[in-house]
Amino acid sequence: MNDTHNTASSSSTRRRRFRFGGGLRPVAGLALWVSAFVILYGGLSVGCRAALSPAPWLNTDSVTLWLSGFWLAHVIGAAALLYASWRRRDEPPQHEGGAAGFLERLTLTLDGIAIAAIVAIGVPILLLPPCS
Questions:
Q1: Is the pLDDT of residue 52 over 50?
Q2: For the whole model, what pTM was predicted?
Q3: 3-state secondary structure of 54
Q4: Angstrom distance (rounded) from CA 26 to CA 55
Q5: How far apart, in whole angstroms, are the C-alpha atoms of residue 45 and residue 38?
Q6: Angle value at C-alpha 114, between 60 and 27, nearest 5 degrees
Q7: I need a surface site. Which of 18, 106, 125, 126 has the fewest CB within 10 A?
Q8: What is residue 58's DSSP assignment?
Q9: Which residues pair with 61 in a beta bridge?
Q10: Of 85, 70, 68, 84, the residue nearest 130 (C-alpha)
């Protein structure tokens, strides 16, 4: 009975960390890119149609301000996913098999592609005037 108690206490003293995993984790960055694409270009269309008012204190219009905020939120989310993938690249897999290492590299690569795509679709919103 004492051995069982020692085993339980040693497993409970291990540091537990939340790990966002599962079968959908490799595509989470690309799902975030899709969300950014739909929100930015849909928001641009709706903002232009609604003819939102200019914001003279920042020398820009409110459409650009709103879209920049949404874009920045997506960039931060993609950066967090990329950072989490980068930190996990050297950790040993939890289970045996060659697929675990492949999935870690795949996730890191797709997260890098996702953040690059989110930045690329946001640059025109920052540089070009909307509704022109």
A1: yes
A2: 0.73
A3: strand
A4: 40
A5: 10
A6: 135
A7: 18
A8: G
A9: 54
A10: 68
